[in-house]
Write the structure tokens for this entry.
Amino acid sequence: MIIRKFLFLIFLLLIISCNYDLKYYKDIIGQWQCVTVENRLPSGDCSGEIFQFNDDHIFTQIDGANLLNGSYKIDGNKLHRAMPGSPVISVRIKDIVGDTMWWESLDEPKSIMILAKT
């Protein structure tokens, strides 16, 4: 009896964690423009940064005149972006509400990027 309860709890946790990842995968699809970055030095201006996340786990980032392509993965509330020849960049998705997304850098100093879906 105890084993059945334990297995049921494990099964329930797996379903919840999978749905958590799927929620962000679904919500992140589309084009996002950076609105501002809190705690970024020297300024919080990021108006030239655009991110396009596709449902095939490929993303494009436009940063001014630079065009970057790579793949992305979501693990819980962490978004990992990988580009050929570069280290993986990871951020914590704080929330996605409607057409607004907040993510937080995992590096120090902490910064929070606010993006709007376009």
Remarks:
- The longest helix spans residues 2-28.
- Residues 2-117 form a domain with the Lipocalin fold (CATH 2.40.128.280).
- Strands lie at 30-38, 49-53, 58-63, 66-75, 78-82, 89-97, 100-105, 112-117.
- The radius of gyration is 17 Å.
